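A further point concerns the way the authors explain their paired sequence and structure data. Nothing conveys this as quickly as seeing an actual entry. An entry of this sort, consisting of the sequence and the corresponding backbone structure tokens, reads as follows:
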Amino acid sequence: MTAITIAIVDDHPLFREGVSRSLSEIDDFVVVGEGASADDATTLAAYHRPDVLLLDVSVPGGGINAISEILALSPQTRVLMLTASEEVESLVAALRRRAAGYVVKGVGARELAEAIRTVVGGSWFVSPSMRAKMVEKSLFVERASLTHRELEVIELVAEGLSNKHIARHLALQEKTIKHHMTVILSKLGATNRTEAAIRWRQGT
């Protein structure tokens, strides 16, 4: 069984240590590092390149602000927000920066493990309470059906990158990007990449 490597960044030591201890008790989970700030998060990403980096929104330096740099340093890392913030704006901001998921603190070890396995598998995970808020406010409802890789592609499309440049950025074949785009257009109900990017940015 291949181990899943995890880094934890939270500025509350007791909480961080509790999460680390709980996850370390799971056979295929290995906690490779801990930190308390956005700078720590980027350092951990660069040094350990963990499969998953658990990150609080409110760490010094800003958790959400650190996501892009984390992914630039370690593209394969899945950033999973683990936070007390239940603000939809924080959720949307994190997902826009290509976080793989958003978990509200208070979940048990089993639920957190499920979220970790989900994002490692390439899917998107958001706590049920936050999903309900997204639907309630009609914000980015379409995102629920997109995989993490599809979210990465549409984000880069929205930044104006061509399929060729997206393929180079994600270390994939151009034909793979074309396939992802076909699926994305279908899921978003868009007729072209420009419309898909607009729908992704604005929601419905």
Notes: The first helix runs from residue 13 to 24. The CA atoms of residues 68 and 90 lie 15 Å apart. The beta strands are 4-9, 29-35, 52-55, 78-83, 101-104, 125-126.
